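STRUCTURE:
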């Protein structure tokens, strides 16, 4: 019924019309639309990391999807992944499976390229979970008074970073990337955005003896009541000293900034935020809330689903992660995956782990079988949820069940994946 193929040059105007209707937060004038068409067309030439697929019905464009190539730190290995974005459907063809068919074709296209993992923003978690995407770590939003942040002994190494600091900033991020599960490598455009891409962005760094070991990128939102809100775009640090001085810098803005808004997937960050004197005042305007009559709690932040991940090829992901150590566990495991959206990924994968090192062993014997759908498996292998919890939630089965602790340790990670800031 539908034909999915790369977006044709003559269809860019139709694509933009569909995209504007699908994402109504933007209402461009005809002049703005014409300008953006030039930008998108040029982007196809300048940025081969992006690809647009169109869904055609009788040669008429009725939907599209954008595929973006990244390099991600997955556990301890750098892997190519593809981000999904800009899924749009002509309003005249809603509820006609356009998005489903376009996504299925897009995921097969990615899989055929030998890429085993995809990720996306979770605008509709239920919708994408039906397509096999599993949840990532929650994003937590803190609204903090600057004075509530811990004030260290010094901010002597804090400075404004400019284009001349580009190499040092890139090196800082690469050190962070090399040790942080879930991050994307930065390209030139990403770095330019930090240093000179947006006149409203400011990047403050911790620089000692020419080496940058942390930075915070932010912009100031000036409200109508003359109160200024500082919105953190990116916060990176590689040492405790860098973190301390950056927080001290933010603390020092208390006379100018009313509130700092910080989005993070570090679910232990509150250990810092609650440590400053008077910090409790910045966590809630409404005081205590009560879950019930005997368990009061203090609201600290907002939280929500941010990103989702999907394994496209189960044997392929283990082959790609062959250098990763899975918890130093030894077992012969049969993983049975249910993948209704990509039937070619259905079925069993036998992996022998020897002191944590995975070896694909098709048709070999095994000691234990786990069964789960691809969405749950994707969250499991990314370290977002433990196998024991999946089992307790009824989202996974195991036979024999005396191996639950071994399988849990097999997929356990030191940290949950961090969604790349600034993307």
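SEQUENCE:
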């Amino acid at each position: 019924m539908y034909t999915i193929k790369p977006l044709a040059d003559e269809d860019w105007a139709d694509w933009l019309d569909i995209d504007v209707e699908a994402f109504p937060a933007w209402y461009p004038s005809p002049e703005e639309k014409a300008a953006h068409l030039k930008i998108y067309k040029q982007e196809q030439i300048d940025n081969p990391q992006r690809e647009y697929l169109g869904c055609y019905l009788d040669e008429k464009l009725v939907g599209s999807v954008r595929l973006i190539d990244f390099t991600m730190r997955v556990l301890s290995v750098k892997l190519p992944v593809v981000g999904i974005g800009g899924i749009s459907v002509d309003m005249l063809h809603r509820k006609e499976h356009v998005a489903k068919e376009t996504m299925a074709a897009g995921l097969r296209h990615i899989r055929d390229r030998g890429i085993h993992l995809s990720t996306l923003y979770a605008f509709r978690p239920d919708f994408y979970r039906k397509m096999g995407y599993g949840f990532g770590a929650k994003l937590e939003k803190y609204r903090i008074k600057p004075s509530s942040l811990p004030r260290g002994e010094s901010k002597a190494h804090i400075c404004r970073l400019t284009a001349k600091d580009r190499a040092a900033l890139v090196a800082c991020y690469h050190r962070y990337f090399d040790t942080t599960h879930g991050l994307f490598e930065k390209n030139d455009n990403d770095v330019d955005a930090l240093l000179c891409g947006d006149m409203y962005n400011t990047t403050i760094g911790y620089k000692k003896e020419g080496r940058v070991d942390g930075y915070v990128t932010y912009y100031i939102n000036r409200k109508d009541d003359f109160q200024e809100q500082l919105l953190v775009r990116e916060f990176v640090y590689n040492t405790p000293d860098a973190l301390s001085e950056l927080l001290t810098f933010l603390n020092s803005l208390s006379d100018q900034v009313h509130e700092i808004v910080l989005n993070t997937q570090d679910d232990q960050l509150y250990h810092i935020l609650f440590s400053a004197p008077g910090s409790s005042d910045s966590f809630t305007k409404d005081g205590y809330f009560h879950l019930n009559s005997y368990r009061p709690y203090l609201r600290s932040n907002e939280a929500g689903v941010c990103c989702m991940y999907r394994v496209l090829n189960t044997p392929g992901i283990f082959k790609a992660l062959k250098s990763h150590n899975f918890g130093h566990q030894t077992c012969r495991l049969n993983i049975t995956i249910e993948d209704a959206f990509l039937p070619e990924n259905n079925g069993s994968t036998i992996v022998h782990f020897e002191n944590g090192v995975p070896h694909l062993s098709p048709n070999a014997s095994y000691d234990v079988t786990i069964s789960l759908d691809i969405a749950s498996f994707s969250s499991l292998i990314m370290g977002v949820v433990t196998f024991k919890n999946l089992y307790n939630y009824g989202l996974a089965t195991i036979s024999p069940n005396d191996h639950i602790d071994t399988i849990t340790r097999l997929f356990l990670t030191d940290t949950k994946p961090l969604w790349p800031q600034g993307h």
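REMARK: Residues 154 and 305 are 36 Å apart (CA to CA).
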